[in-house]
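Task: complex structure prediction.
Instruction: return structure tokens for all chains below.
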Amino acid sequence: MSRPSPDHPTTTPSGRPRRSVPGSGLAKGLAVTLRTMTKKTVTEQYPDAQPALPPRSRGVIGLFEENCTVCMLCARECPDWCIYIDSHKETVPAATPGGRERSRNVLDRFAIDFSLCMYCGICIEVCPFDALFWSPEFEYAETDIRDLTHERDKLREWMWTVPAPPALDPGAEEPKEIAAARKAAEKLAAAQAEPPTEPTDPQEGAS
Amino acid sequence: MNGALDVGLRLLVVFVVFLTFPLIVGQTEHKVMAHMQGRLGPMYAGGFHGWAQLVADGVKFAQKEDVVPAGADRRVFQLAPAVALLPYLLVLLAIPIGPGEGAVGQVIDAGIFFVLAVMGVGVLGSLMAGWASANKFSLLGGLRTAAQLLAYELPMLLAAASVAMAAGTVSLPGIVDAFEWWWLPWQIVGAIVFFVAGLAELQRPPFDMPVADSEIIFGAYTEYTGLRFALFLLAEYAGIIVLCGLTTVLFLGGWHGPWGAEGLGWVWTLLKTAILAFVVIWLRVTYPRLREDQLQKFSWTLLVPLSLAQIAVTGIVKVVIS
Amino acid sequence: MSPAAALATTAAAAPHGFLSPTGVEIAFLLVGLVTFGAALVTVTTRQLVHAALWLVVTLGGLAVEYLLLTAEFIAWMQVLIYVGSVVVLLLFGLMLTKAPIGRSPDADSANRWAALGVAVAAAAALVWVVVDAFRTTWIDLGGAPSGSTKVTGASLFQNWVLPFEALSVLLLAALVGAIVLSRKAKADAAAATTGTPAVPGSRSEKEGVR
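Output:
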């Protein structure tokens, strides 16, 4: 019935067969189930209590359409071709008299078909203007598969459920923007406070 | 007239017990099994921790269509659930829960033989279902049921015979009357053999090859739907009650307890039965299903010799003390 | 009913007429008729499994008759051994065959008349023996139960201990024979195909223990 398993050798290192009490394995099994019964359960009572999702959950894709320039990168990179974008060009009158007229892309339609989407996140990765975000929102089941194609207003609504980016790891490098700004500020402060008595000071500020 | 009223009242009480206790065991199984697996179990039906889950299940079963397969043997197919269920009702009549005439449905002279005989009849229901369904899985389930019954009825009988020898009577109240606390170590092997063999006869895990869902769907009950299916399930849980009650009465001293008032013996009986029912559930959660050949080997090479040894020990001790 | 129970019975109560219509006697007759009918169906039905199930009814009816004669122990033994085990074994065997649902076309034996003759002869012999043995013995249903476990056991192990032991030896011989047969078959099988694991608890072994 019981087969020797690699991590429970039936012989001791000295070579003699191990004398275990018959039925001790059975008792151990009973102990495990009894112990589990006294512990707290892991069931999440989902419709009654919302699950605590990790901040980077891939629930749904939100669109921050002010950032979108209709560059079409997301639609082209999408492996499933589930992003639909329509747009038209508008000309903007010249800002300064005598200047050139500029043309601008205006977004008419931005829709994602979530019945096709495989939640790979490539569109979010490739967006150069930070217009697409993951949202942990997941309760958007529909009774008809056609209703799973969500338009820009719905994607915009989901944008409000996108959590703030997680705090950086304590040992992590500073974000580049903040590091540059701080370096500039410290240089300025050092220049104002003390002329060149301590040569090592700027290096410390840079490190 | 008074006699008829008394009989009617007893029958009514036994019937109510028969209908409610299996549900309580079933609900306990839902919850205990869930918590042993780190789950919560049913939480909705009835509001408070899903207490009415089995009632809801019953309503669901009653609404379902009663399907009889076209190729089935119609009458045998329809009769099988009743044959499976009724014996347990009869056995329940004979189990005493307290001292005196008032605490047993019907005093039967050869109580042990009555309960074991009638419990064996219950298995006929599974066999009928297995054969009449015209389904290969059902047939295999029926075959396994029969093989299991043949293997496990012998040790069960021998263990019961041992305790009957110890008590010098085959009547259930008589056995409990004769019980002394030191019977517990004396008959412990017999008690374990009886309980394990009873589990196998009820087809409870880890002895549930006849209904092994990964191999033969649901064995003999594969083709059943609706109320008839529910009756088979009810028979299984009524069987748990009967087995635990019998083990209590035969081996654990029934209404005898270390302390307690004179009139509260039935509390002890119910308490011991409930603990045993918990053990039944516990075993189900803990152990995986035995293979068919392991099952047969377990009975013939372990349980039968153990029960024979128990009879020998009982005989020796009995001769020494008398 | 067992002769043991009958011996313990007083040949009491002269005022009994033949079949005085008390409730118990009417019940006895009715159950007897049902049992007889079930037995007839058992041997005449063309559906094999139905025959086995009718056999359950027949044996159950016999158990009820024992009960009505206050032979409680014998009645439960009848249910335990015959209904609970022998019929289960029978059904087990039938399930291993190709017993169809519905009529078996080849269930019509050619020598049914010979079988009828044997059956009638056997029944006549048994009835004659029983009638001759008991004649007008009446069981007093009102008094102490004459077929209780205690009475049956006492007479079995005092008056009838020799036949009892002879039967035990017979069963033991059957048991040993079954084991020998199954072991021989197993050894042959092992010799034929080495490495094939033999199934423990094979059928013949079970029958032997029964």
